[in-house]
Amino acid sequence: MYSKKLYSKEKLLIISFFVFITFVLIWISLISGNNGIAFEDTFKIFNQEETFSIIFQKIRVPRTLAAFFVGAALGLSGAMMQAVLKNPLASPFTLGISQASAFGASFAIIVLQAYSSTTSYEAGFITALFAFLTSMISTLLIISLGKKGNMSPESLILFGVALGAFFSAFTMLLQYFAEDTDAAATLFWTFGDLSKANNSSIFLISTVLILSLLFYFKIFWKFDALMLGEDSAKSLGINTSKLRFSSMIIASLLSAVSVCFFGIIGFIGLIAPHIVRLLIGNSHKFILPLSALSGGILLLLADIVSRTVLLPVIIPVGIITSMIGAPLFLYFLYVRRT
Predict the structure, then answer these.
(1) CA atoms of 102 and 248, how far apart (whole Å)
(2) Does pTM surpass 0.90?
(3) How far apart are CA 30 and CA 14, in angstroms?
(4) What three-state secondary structure class fits 149?
(5) Which segments of the chain does DSSP mark as H helices, in order?
(6) Could you tell me the residue range of the domain that residue 169 belongs to?
(7) 62 in a domain, yes or no?
(8) Does a structural domain hold residue 195?
């Protein structure tokens, strides 16, 4: 009984630490600008100085919220994929779903000329729709091959890497034949950039994230059962095929809404769940929400680095996450082989 209480206190302490770090990084992000991290801007936030107020409300707040919600969406998406595929290397990036979303967005911009013939709202909707549709194609391919081909978790990851390369090749092909303006627009998808944050994109991503969390809170125990094996899960009355399909669809939606607005931001969905498992164990009651929180923390941190490491140059955040995530991905591969 005593050890159980102690274990609960440790988990509460870890959760409190995650929340504390989140608020600290949000604060640092809000006071980061062209001159780096300016702690004196903390006091300006509460003043009504007109110029700073415009910069704060129109640029810093949307970018900070976008970093948190996009990171949280990718973190939750990765946790779900790793759970239903029973593969710790699964994520929207490693399975090629992010690259498929980017291809769909590029197709809408270059081929359909979404931004030249419609309003910005309609263009954003069309782009998001095609990003989602292509991510669904990628997801359905992964699910069907995993089921019909009886592929191992490692083989699914290799298939995802190949699928991502396939979609990336077609994205580059579209860019090669595109007009300069369209090619430049799609190039930002491959970089991953948070500067395009606005109220509508933040609202959509946060809404999808919250609804996904509410859905998963109701069925988190099914993922714990699935970890024990297909037969054990089925003995508890769980339709594993339905669980895997619905979870992959929602995880892909989380990835698609992020990619369609901000481009490919790699490795957040891979790393965030691993950090949580390392600190708090394998219970999906904690893995799901904390993976979202961890993803938000990682992307907030990456965005702060991207804005301050080479002042006054702002590096696209996708470059930072890939530079950090790629070595960690290789490390996880090495650990699984040894």
Answers:
(1) 18
(2) no
(3) 24
(4) coil
(5) 2-30, 41-44, 50-55, 61-85, 97-110, 114-117, 120-148, 153-177, 180-191, 199-227, 230-235, 240-262, 268-280, 284-308, 317-337
(6) 84-263
(7) no
(8) yes
Residue 185 covered by a domain:
yes
Question: How many angstroms separate the Cα of 187 from the Cα of each of 99, 120, 165, 168, 192?
Answer: 13, 19, 16, 11, 9
**Domains in the chain: how many in total?**
1
- Give the residue from 206, 197, 186, 77 showing the smallest Cα distance to 127: 186
* Token duo for residue 120: 């910005």
Token reading at 125: 């909707």
The alpha carbon torsion through 272, 33, 28, 40 (nearest 10 deg) reads 170
pLDDT tens per residue across all 338 residues of the chain: 444 555 578 888 888 999 999 999 999 999 887 777 777 777 777 776 777 778 888 888 999 999 999 999 999 999 988 888 888 888 888 888 888 888 888 888 888 876 666 566 677 678 778 888 888 888 888 878 777 656 666 777 788 888 889 998 998 898 888 888 777 777 766 778 888 788 888 998 999 999 999 888 888 888 888 887 777 888 888 888 888 888 888 888 888 888 878 888 888 988 899 889 888 888 888 898 999 999 999 999 999 999 888 888 888 888 899 888 778 777 766 765 55
Contacts of 272 (CB under 8 A, 6+ apart): 71, 74, 75, 78, 79, 291, 292, 294, 295, 298
User: Is 192 contained in some domain?
Assistant: yes
Q: What is the DSSP letter of 328?
A: H
- Lookup: tokens for 139: 């997801």
Query: Do 124 and 201 meet the contact criterion of CB atoms below 8 Å apart?
Result: yes
CATH code, 131? 1.10.3470.10
Cβ distance 288 to 233 under 8 Å? Answer: no
